[in-house]
Amino acid sequence: MAFLKLSNSSLSILFWASKLKEVVFPPVCAFCHAQTEDYYAICPKCWFSIKFVNSNVCDYCGRLLLPGMLGMPRRPGMPGVSRKLEKVETLKKIENLETSEKLEKLEKSEALETLENSSNYTLPKCCPDCSLLASAERSVRVTASIIYDDFSRMFILRLKDRNAPHLALVLSKFFHAHDFDGLDYISPVPIHPRRLLARTYNQSALLALGVKYWHPECPDVNLRLLVRQRHTPKQKGKDAESRAVNVQDSIVVPQRMRHLVEGKRIAVLDDVVASGATIGVCKAALEQAGAREVRCIALAKTM
Fold it and tell me: By the 8 A CB rule, do 276 and 296 touch?
């Protein structure tokens, strides 16, 4: 009974402590500090000011497609598309030959299975910039939640440069749990120890931990799969080519972590993606270490 009374007393103290907290520190919007109903929330005005990314995006660079661009296929003859066009022609031939006696039973079953899996095959959507590229490898497919504009820049820079780590728990709500389906790890984009010492935290790592907090079903966050072995100047103000040169070979997978990467499906998570140079280096490093699949996911992306 004494334990029961102690428990009830403790619960009573916690209850009134929470009420006192609401009076002294009422829940406010993380962006404009207007009063809200819950903690780690944003007000309706700020919510409707955020521009979210819809499904009409380029399959290669992730940029938003205007209505006149929807469904624009990558031009034939380019790497990636030419192989898929050949696959379509091959599937048509297999469909014509499926009743032929020349096909063995095993070959026929494999052909039918391939046809069944490819029955909904469509050409990828592509923006005009990617359609003019000579190689598909120049574009990094990035899945972003919001568009990086003047409004989103305001609170993302607060997270990065103004010592506001609490914003990560709010911003991580914008990620979609289904983007991480079937993955083994979430690996945030690393920062150099020198910059970590100046900033005191890695904003991408905080966002990744926030995703795991709000969506426990998501894969585990591993902060050691990638390391930045070379300190690089900030990317701000550089063009796409200069950004790529700046971060070239700056991020690697440590030798002691390669056994965790081989054959795994991994998501690389960043706060903002502009040209895709940094997150592209992370993707290349993981693929070189033997990763089976690498997805690039960001909070915001320039469009």
Answer: yes
For the chain, where are the E strands, in sequence order? 142-147, 185-188, 220-221, 227-228, 251-252, 265-273, 293-301
In sequence order, the 6+-apart residues with CB closer than 8 A to the CB of 147 are 51, 52, 53, 64, 300, 301, 302, 303
Read off the pLDDT of residues 11-26 as tens digits, 9 standing for 90 and up: 456 556 555 655 667 8
pLDDT in tens, 47-97: 999 988 876 777 666 666 766 554 444 443 444 444 444 555 555 555 555
Domains belonging to the chain, first-starting first, are: 143-301 (3.40.50)
Is 221 within 8 Å of 185 (Cβ atoms)? yes
Q: Which two tokens stand for residue 117?
A: 């899996």
Q: pTM of the entire structure? A: 0.71
CA distance 243 to 261: 26
